Amino acid sequence: MLKNKNVLVAAIIWLCLINGNSAFGKNVGVVLSKNHDAQSVVPQSKNAVANFEQGTNLYKQGDFKGAEAAFRKAIELEPNFAQAYIALANTLDDQGKPQEAIAHYKKAISLDAKNPGAYFNLGLTLARLNQLEPAIAQYKQAISLDANYADAHYNLGNALYAQGKLTEAVTEYTAAIRLKPNYAPTYTRLGNALYDQGELAEAITQYKKSISFDPKYADAHYYLGNALYAQGKPTEAIAEYTAAIRLDPKNPAGYNALGNTLYAQGKLEEAIAHYQKALSFDPNYADAHYNLASAFYAQGKLTEAIAGYSEAIRLDPKHAQAYTGLGNAMDDQGKPQEAIAHYKKAISLVPNDAFTYYNLGITLGREQQLEEAIVNLKKARELFQAEENKEMVEQVDLLIQKMNIRTN
Description:
With 408 residues, this protein is mainly alpha-helical. The protein contains 22 helices and no strands. 74% of the residues lie in helices and 0% in strands. Helix 7 runs antiparallel to helix 8 (150-162), helix 16 (286-298) runs parallel beside helix 18 and helix 19 runs antiparallel to helix 20 (354-366). The two termini are 22 Å apart.
């Protein structure tokens, strides 16, 4: 009987979440002469300004400890030096001290409440701590003070995207593009939001715009490959994945995605080689372990498949697809009770996967647990019906009919 064909995981979000909040980076271009309101304190001490400028140069050189010392000296000489607090917070954040950084951003805001850069940088730090709602509030405050703050619109879009608020994210990315039209990553992030809304053609347009501004932007090639693959254009997708790998040869996502495309073409050995390449760069890449296991399963290499699925689960205990795959492999090894347990675990994690109910129903039926088998097959039928998968609805109806005969 037909089993679930293990669905490969492309992880389109993967790159976006890693790179999403870092593209524009901190606002380090603090202008000492800019007076945001009448109460802003302009540094009076030349020595404080000199230390601040020294710290800025050291920060740009990557000497964060030296920069920290210089900014602290500037603050010592000029305790109300708001820009120095922002700069000090930047150095602390880059040294892995986000809580100290947050305190200094807030101090800067207390001294100069009209400085949009302080709110923006505070938002970046909060976003990296996954405190998205507070980060969004800071980005919005920065924009309220400077409506043309492209970086704030962009990062607000990232935070909204991470929350699944795609329409709002599109609005912010569009604003960022209007204000900074030559910045390639914004088009890519906009493409991702459109992709997730099912707007494949428009997403592809945005990815291509991104590449037109920066042909060496690996992320844009990667995501364009995903969109082309989703459109059923594997040859074009392979070209984009290959470009992404050439431009960023140590990023495992490109190898994983290229492996999926080759898998779909039946080129299992080539797919396996690319999954293994992905894992050589990131041994903890759960989806690549899962995909590699699925390729081994397709080759009938059950021992290797079980090892891969088990590793995916170890790395990501909520990886429902890996439990389903492991259930399939265990069932094929003649271990139905273990298979049943894994199918049920998958269902507990993702309760709307039709094929998992279907596979569970088949295994239960083979074990003569007919009443429970029929319950699961009926659930599978309901889900297949919602997906308009007529072939599987008919297949389930036939199985239920046969089981009902056996129970009577």
